[in-house]
């Protein structure tokens, strides 16, 4: 009976939050039509904690939050990360992401192959995948050989159908990322199937554009730099700038994901950029360390044999997904730290912003040991 009650209360909670979202949106639309005087968005809710208890409660941007406030944010984000079961969710996202990689490669090679030969595309993808551990890179190269052998460069109905099918399949993996980011932001998905699928497809196309830009930075730019008379110092500076630009593009892509994916009123870019930058720096360090470990110290070939490449690629995807979701938790708790409106558009009072972390303050600035739900009432 206890288990039944818990399941019923969870269902009731989801239903209630969906109804609350619909009610907030209807109230906002009605207020816009009536033209009444809106409440003061600068007014803090009754009983709100002060700066001494919640440093940064008056912050308008993340940079205005003091270090003591960031200490609370990191603690809450880590506690929420565990309470939301993000390590397990990241594993699920990584699995479906793995299933989506090769349909995405098919779509990428088919689209890019309209302006370049499939062999050229495959060679540039191999140059990009060379940044991964050897086993994972070998797996991708094998699949690329099979894809290129069955691809063409002429636009036809069959090519369009295959591109659309590949995009649809790849968007399934992106849809799981959207669901996980919703969990990080404490949001319940209330969008229609069509709107949600269009969002996933748009993010999938955005990911393909990101990969194309990455191609240029990783595979094309080095050849251009070699042809230019830059000298030793100039070449080193250009290489450093190339990798800094690559990480900047990655951070920008994450910021777009954090802003678009959750079913809520979109946060301002300043409130999603910091978590994206932090995750990008950590991800770069972890990826390099993981590649060095696998190539020099790991024994995946001996342990897993022919499927070593699959295991290594899955582990790298898991680390990537885990860090992406941790960045979403950091962004969410940063918004939770301030009473000011963090959403896009004109400032709204708390309770009317259409976002859980923007409409509430944490009941406890720092989680306590043993909390099962550390930052939500």
Automatic annotation (TrEMBL):
Transmembrane segments: 88-115, 201-224, 236-257, 269-294, 306-328
Database matches in Pfam families: Virul_fac_BrkB (PF03631)
Superkingdom of source: Bacteria
Annotated spans, Disordered: 1-62, 337-377
Protein localization: Cell membrane
Membrane topology category: Multi-pass membrane protein
Entry keyword set: Cell membrane, Membrane, Transmembrane, Transmembrane helix
GO cellular component: plasma membrane
Comp. bias (Basic and acidic residues): 1-23, 365-377
Main location: membrane
Record keyword Nucleotidyltransferase present: no
The protein's name: Membrane protein
Organism of this sequence: Blastococcus saxobsidens
